[in-house]
Amino acid sequence: MASKMFMGDMPELIENILKHLNNEISSLYSCALVNRHWCKMSIPILWQDPFSNKRSSLFIPIYFSSLGENEKFVIKECLKKWINVEFSKPLFDYARFLKVLHIFRIAKKVREWMCLKLNKPHLFYYDSRTTPLTTLIFKLFLESGVILHEFGLYNSEFLKFELEIFFHSLEKNVQFYSRIQHLSLDIISNFDFENIAKSLRVLAKNTTKISALRLVFYSKYAKLIHTLFPSLIHFIKSQEQLRTFILDGRDDCSTEFYGIISALNFQKNTLQELHYATVVLAQSSSTLEISYFRIDIPIIVQILEKIGILLKRLKVETETVIREGSLLLEALKSFCPNIIYLYIKDIVHFTQLVEIIGNLQKLQFLSLGYAYHIPKEERKIRVMQFAKILPSTLQYLDIALGIPNTLLDSFIDILLDHCNAPLKKLLISGGINNEKNIKALIRYCTRIRTLNYVGIVKYYDFLNYDISNELKKYVTLVPYKHIVINC
Fold it and tell me: Does 37 map to a domain?
């Protein structure tokens, strides 16, 4: 009966099912114990990404057991004063299954394994004993016919030996990197920029199917990083299927990277996501998300100028007031007419923001936080202006982002009495706990007849108030988190 199960397409179907368990390590181990067929299908999946942070380091000796006798001797000599290593005959050629490798993680897992064997909570960040062990494992991958799909190069003095092996073996091991789809390059030191540039040129010649590329730089090495730019730009241009590009210029070195961003014009037919620091653009869903302590407005304006016509969802959330918000808002007005979802807070220029919202004739979802000082005599006028410009397409309004006491949330009665937008959901911090606002809400529901839910941040505090049964006839009150929509 069992043999009949594995006739036809059955093994292939099971293998496809098991591939979807690649993050369920315990489940894959259980599958490997079912029978020989399941074991042969589960083991390669289990060993595709053994250096993941989720995995235990207990597998390290298995790689040691796959080495030659000379390498095993080196390991014993390296560890003989601290750890007794036993080598067993491996059941599979585990190294050959590797698909995901971030170089720095090899050293990290070796250190974790040594900590377990030595019964110590931690070793120094750099321990000389880990270097030869890490090097041997890396050489094992190079010599085992590994075909990587994801590779991360973390440029550090701690990995000098491994990096030298990598740099000098690229041209001899084309198979190792020829099918890489995800490449991550972290430049955090001033070590060996010349070799990195040379490696990028080799990769550009043999690896053209990368779909995701991540580059991380630090500004204190900006002058040295400039030496990489020609090779980086050539490498980016060489890619035929680039869909995701991440450029993380740490320590405010964003102005150094205009040339790299310009090179992305060569990928305009394939690029779907652009991440700049923590700015995220997903072209396939026409989404731009900006979330950072401090953002580079000129860069954002440049991006909006190129892709603003496609933009449908925009989220701007920072930890500091956007003082250059006027430039950002002007860019929205000029380049982004098709926005459907807008989430924005901490913009100083309220009057300009009101004008922009009034021009967004396709806007359906608006989340807004504004808590800056406006002269008392002007507040009601501003709220009235805001209510009147809301487009007739608007269905969702969240004014609770800047709680407590945001400008709009403080004058709910004025907002509702002058709003003609057919809202279906209104989200507030809790400002309808008085008779004036309750009556305004009833008047809005009677006049517009579209509002279904009011989400309240302080919902459970609000339950203490005596809400008349009359209000319940018009709208349902729910906790804010139940109906909030995120970009």
Answer: yes
